[in-house]
């Protein structure tokens, strides 16, 4: 930790999960059984897991989109499980940047509106982006950093972009306005090896610049070298042992 930049009130952990049990329905087998998972503030964690091992489910639990049947989840020092649904939605909009595996963007909105969307749902993120030079300027800076021609894609509908370009737009949207935690669900699946490495490099640099922790999940173990720490989901999730 850098003591000069860490505020006195900033929690040391971006994520603290304890004794989590989750199944999609009472009649279905558990998908997640996790004794403990901690992620430090600003840490970049790589979580590898085979297809179907529960990666997206775990991110859904962290994002507060899914609720565990047992256990506690502390995110950036807060307890989303204890919040009302609308407060939890507000917390997610304000403090988390989420890059989903699919259905990332609002298809009929132009790229610029997609990237700046978090600033419309969160005054804090609008303020942070504004302080970085203006909301649109910061959005264009992020798009450029992630390898897109910001001015040429700005007014395009996201459906007119390639999947790889859409994933970059989704990353810019997750990063805008200094969220404390970025959740990235296989965001490089549509990129070739070269642009994949470059994308991860830029994503981790931008997370560092924003002081955000990053949880990046993928089935591809080759990506682990880009991160501070790598974990295999199969080693911490005991739900799938008998599956
Ligand atoms: P991964 O992201 O690692 O590929 P998932 O978290 O998507 O894995 O899925 C883990 C397990 O949960 C799989 O067996 C999958 O079939 C099941 N699953 C995922 N989503 C649902 C859902 N909405 N309803 C029921 N089962 C689901
Ligand atoms: Mg998945």
Written account of the structure:
It contains 9 helices and 8 strands. It has 243 residues and is of the alpha/beta class. The protein has one domain (42-68, 85-237): 3-Layer(aba) Sandwich (Rossmann fold), CATH 3.40.50. Strands 5-6-7-3-8 form a 5-stranded parallel beta sheet, sandwiched between helices. It is globular. Mean pLDDT is 91; it is low at 1-6. Magnesium ion (MG) is lined by residues 55-56, 101, 185.
Give me the side-by-side strand order of the main sheet. Answer: 5-6-7-3-8
Helix amount, in percent? 25-40%
- Quaternary organization: single chain
Instruction: List the domain count as a whole number.
Output: 1
Mean pLDDT: 91
Which strand-content bin applies to the residues?
A: 15-25%
Secondary-structure element string:
EEEHEHEHHHHHEHEEH
Strand segment count:
8
Q: What does the radius of gyration come to?
A: 17 Å
Question: Ligands in the structure?
Answer: adenosine-5'-diphosphate, magnesium ion
Question: Which CATH architecture would you pick?
Answer: 3-Layer(aba) Sandwich
Which key features would you list for this structure?
binds magnesium ion; binds adenosine-5'-diphosphate; single chain; 37% helix; 243 residues; 8 strands; Rossmann fold; alpha/beta
């Amino acid at each position: 930790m850098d003591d000069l930049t860490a505020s006195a009130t900033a929690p040391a952990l971006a994520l603290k999960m304890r004794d989590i049990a989750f199944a999609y329905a009472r009649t279905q087998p558990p998908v997640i059984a996790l004794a403990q998972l901690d992620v430090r503030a600003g840490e970049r964690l790589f979580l590898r897991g085979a297809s179907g091992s529960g990666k997206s489910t775990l991110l859904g639990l962290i994002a507060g989109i899914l609720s565990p049947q047992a256990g506690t989840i502390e995110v950036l020092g807060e307890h989303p499980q204890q919040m009302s649904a609308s407060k939890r939605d507000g917390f997610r909009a304000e403090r988390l940047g989420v890059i989903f595996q699919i259905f990332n963007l609002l298809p009929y909105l132009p790229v610029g509106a997609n990237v700046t969307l978090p600033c419309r749902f969160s005054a804090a993120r609008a303020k942070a982006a504004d302080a970085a030079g203006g909301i649109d300027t910061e959005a264009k800076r992020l798009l450029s950093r992630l390898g897109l021609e910001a001015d040429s894609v700005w007014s395009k509908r996201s459906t007119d972009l390639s999947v790889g370009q859409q994933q970059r737009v989704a990353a810019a949207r997750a990063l805008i306005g200094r969220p404390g935690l970025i959740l990235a669900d296989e965001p490089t699946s549509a990129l070739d090896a070269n642009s994949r490495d470059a994308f991860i490099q830029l994503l981790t640099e931008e997370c560092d610049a924003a002081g955000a922790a990053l949880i990046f999940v993928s089935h591809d173990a080759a990506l682990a070298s880009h991160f501070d720490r790598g974990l295999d989901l199969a080693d911490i999730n005991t739900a799938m042992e008998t599956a």
